[in-house]
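Bit of a strange request maybe. I'm writing a small parser for structure token strings and I need a real example to test against, not something I typed by hand. Could someone generate the tokens for this chain?
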Amino acid sequence: MALNVVFAGETGHGKSSLVNIVVGRKVSKVSPDAQAGTNETQPFVAFQDSTMYRIWDTPGFNSGAGSTVSPKKALGSLFKELLSKDGVHLLVYCLRVRSAVNMGHYRVYKSILSCICDVNVPIVAVVTHADEMLEPLQDDWNVHKGYEMKFANHICLSTLRDEMYPATLGRRLSTTKSIWRLIQGHVRRTPLSLPREMNVVLFGGAEAGKGSVIDLIAGEPKVEVSQGTLSNASGSRGYRIDIGPYRFRLWDTTDLNQPDVRADEFMAAIDQASRLIRSLTDAGGINLLLFCVRKDTLSPRIQANYRLFYEVLCDKEVPIGLVITHLEHEDNMEDYWTKISESLKQWDVVTIGHACVTTSPSYPEKCQISKVVVQGLLTYCDCSGRYTMPADPWLKRLKSSLSQRFHAGESLASTLKRRCGLAPEIAERLAVRLMPRQDA
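Reply from user aminoacidic:
Good idea to test on real output. This should exercise your parser:
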């Protein structure tokens, strides 16, 4: 189980810079002012002394009039979600202090406390920008006119790189060691469960590069050279990949390029996916669906694949994550989510999380960020239940599911075209196959 460490504080106080230092690479957007910065909660994976940490960056408080994010609401929702799963193990309050705290610091502190819901979560303070402090902090630095902020501990540090003015050799290394000592010394540890294997099924079109996503997660080529592969009765290939204490089997599926694919190919792909889900039932079920979509193919047409896997094959019982690929030309890949998220809602594509990534080896730094982001998405689902396919045939269940969505006088083929966005020929073929099962 990963330990959840949540970073919170005002925009421009070094919160995202600290997250980047802890993770060991630039994964979170840094902003010096209150008009930009982190727009939503996002997890990143970090390892220290064989322990996995899930580092959460959150929207900054006092994020300016132009912000559409309510930091307090976002933080409260995150705490509620984490507390319903494996808990919050440490909260890090980041604040910028010149000589003493002020009423603004105290108001943010109280807002953070209100999000914790009276749960016993250790809170530590990291006073950033130590290089600009006018004088060392006094013993009562955390008290303002009788209003006291209570912390398990605190440290003062600089988030500047070594070459930044004033140039100081070893500054970044010292900061990294200090923040990790603080985290490890105060994180509330819980007994680790034994590693368990989780089944993750990837689906999407050929252009999305599912195989490249598997290689990205593994950190080495697996799909091309077929190393560490497993096969099952469905003909699908599985790849064993370990991430810290987690063991995953990533299952690739036949590409679904609907509506351009021929009806025979589409039906064969759906049959194979059905057999895969059935075979994984014997292995305990499915933990996660990973929907891979290429950036320039995002349109209402992706509803077909989404609904066939999520609604039809898995009865909406499996959490689904979205991986958007080919974002190497974006200055900040995560910004693309802001551009597309509203459209996804309009298309009824609802997921538990997302990863905006590139798998292009020509962009090694962005690939490293992509690896951290998609691994964070995988490990975030470690507490989700498993889905096992019911005994009745999937075509019969599909007919039952769609019958609840019939319009008056509408044929089954028309429903398939309308609900799943299937091409006319494919919808007719699938409808024909459904009808005999109805009489069985």
